[in-house]
Amino acid sequence: MAADEAITTPRSTGSARADEAITTPRPTGSARAGSTAVFSDRPAKIRVKGVALSYRNNTSSTAVLSDLSFDVAEGEFVSLIGASGCGKSTTLSLLAGLRMPDSGEVHIDGVPVTGTGKDRSVVFQHYALFPWMRARRNVEFGIRQVSDAPKREIAAKAAYYLKRVGLEGKEALYPHQLSGGMQQRVAIARALAMETEILLMDEPFGAVDAKTRVVLQDLLLELLQEQERKRTVVFVTHDIDEALLLSDRVLFMNAQRISKVIEVPFEHPKKRHEIAQTLVYRELRKEIFDMFYEDEGEYLASGI
After folding, report:
1. 232-237 vs 77-82, strand pairing mode
2. Of 92, 141, 145, 174, which has fewest CB within 10 angstroms of its CB?
3. Is 258 within 8 Å of 47 (Cβ atoms)?
4. How many percent of the chain have pLDDT more than 90?
5. Are the C-beta atoms of 280 and 26 separated by less than 8 Å?
6. Among 164, 178, 167, residue whose Cα is nearest residue 131
């Protein structure tokens, strides 16, 4: 299916058009089926259109992305979800400017992405801290990449964000002296302290235990709500509950492109225990769960 077709193709269930998913509020009593519309009618902070990318070596070529199209509005939190190998992390690397597409367009504020930029910060799954730098220095290093502020101001900002992520008193520790969860807190503090317009997060909680994951999810929501200017966030995850808790929209990736767009109706700040008890949440969760198995034709029970 071509990218432009996704905007006008009717939904397979019901008579509503696909593009109504953007303009019509979701009913509070039940969840609407995911839309195939990849572009919204809001001004796009990020726009990806018709992107294709293959990995090549001397003897073969493997397609990773094909006709990938979507957009993200300013201040929106969008999650990319899908099975392993569908191209989520590769998509994030394109947005970060760490990789260039073979064809298609990647724009930020209408300007083609040609490399990394001071408007974007990235949080990786495996912390990506400099092992020879103390926690404080790791955060200060990130700030210096985007700011020419005086040294004292940078140090104060690093201290503030480390305190906000619960690492006050541990600023002088090296990464190897911190637990996995603490290391990821440093990485989050660094990304937030950079105060970039766009925050790209590649399974940032995937390597921590379940309890720490919940704590970090809540911490991220809290910190994003506190900031004066709402960040634009693109978040890669395998976790359905995480996507529904954090996101304004969930983009499901399949066959190297976006196959469904799910609008998440819950207003921020979200309370996980409250939304998880609603019928809408359960229907959305099952809808996304079913998407993982559509191609296999497996029988799915009515509840999960």
Report:
1. parallel
2. 145
3. no
4. 62
5. yes
6. 178
